[in-house]
TrEMBL record:
SUPFAM superfamilies: HD-domain/PDEase-like
The protein's name: HDOD domain-containing protein
Pfam families hit by this protein: HDOD
Residue intervals of the HDOD domain: 14-209
InterPro entries in the record: HDOD (IPR013976), RNase_Y/CdgJ (IPR052340)
The organism's place on the tree of life at top rank: Bacteria
């Protein structure tokens, strides 16, 4: 049996965020920093610069005309959105060399992208939360499973098999067999990497959003995205998703199958383009 912190400690030796991300985070926390300071920090890393410009000029943001410099990107998007975009590309890059033998990595990242897009579409459709922040939180919401399959592959695989056999929730079997679940491990990684306030709370409470405190809306949007993703193969996917969503979440956000269908449609429509953006070789 393992704690979330023990599993994260195993992976931290293999994956870490780049120095440029930490510089950007420090600038965001510094009230005296400027847009130019942030642009200079991003521009110091050629790989991240290329990914940010590719994203800014993609369907994900839809700005008119071509954005050719990081300075213009920061002016258009704002410092917070540039930070979040750098964070998402940095996490994907940090785990690029981590390929657990028992995981289908292409499917994992495609599901992560879909979850991020569904969380983003949910924020827009339901008129709550920051859509761009929700994309990043949704993208990272299942990162706990990547940690678990790397650090405790046999136990994690056994938990998934047991959940499938018993038709039980995965997190319950993970608690019983591994000692913790994917949401707890994801929150522990967010804390270990000192991600912005709210990431750990929202990721950690995605199963039971009411536990997220002031970040309950973010946790609820991830929770909704999870159920939309999980029911993609059902005959009536939106009715199936609604049945899985926490009743308190469904009631507070006035969810119905039409809203879920709208969110699902947006995520499905954007998925291929965004996968090509973050994973050019897989698009």
């Amino acid at each position: 049996m393992s704690t979330p912190q023990e599993l994260v400690a195993c992976v931290e030796r293999l994956a870490s965020l780049p120095a440029v991300y930490h510089r950007i985070r420090a600038l965001l926390d510094d009230p005296d920093s400027s847009v130019q300071d942030l642009a200079n920090a991003v521009s110091s890393d050629a790989g991240i610069t290329a990914r940010v410009l590719r994203a800014v000029n993609s369907v994900l943001y839809g700005f008119p005309g071509k954005v050719e410099t990081i300075g213009r990107a920061v002016n258009l998007m704002g410092m917070q959105q540039v930070h979040d975009l750098v964070l998402s590309t940095s996490v994907i890059g940090a785990f690029s060399g981590v390929r657990p033998a028992r995981m289908h990595m292409i499917k994992f990242w495609k599901d992560c992208v879909f979850r991020g897009l569904a969380a983003r579409a949910g924020a827009k459709t339901l008129g709550t939360g920051d859509p761009e922040r929700m994309f990043v939180e949704g993208l990272l919401a299942d990162i706990g499973h990547l940690v678990m399959f790397q650090a405790a592959p046999e136990a994690t695989d056994a938990a998934l098999a047991a959940a499938h056999k018993a038709q039980a929730p995965v997190h319950e079997m993970e608690q019983e067999i591994v000692g913790c679940d994917y949401a707890e491990v994801g929150a522990a990684l967010a804390n270990a990497w000192h991600l912005p306030n709210g990431f750990a709370a929202a990721i950690g409470a995605q199963i039971r959003p009411a536990l997220a405190g002031p970040h309950v809306t973010e946790a609820a949007l991830i929770h909704i995205a999870n159920q939309i993703l999980a029911t993609g193969g059902e005959a009536e996917p939106d009715a199936a998703a609604l049945a899985l969503i926490d009743p308190m979440v469904a009631a507070s956000l006035e969810l119905d199958t039409d809203k879920l269908a709208h969110i699902r449609g947006i995520a499905e429509g954007e998925q291929d383009s965004v996968i090509a953006l973050f994973f050019p070789a897989q698009g």
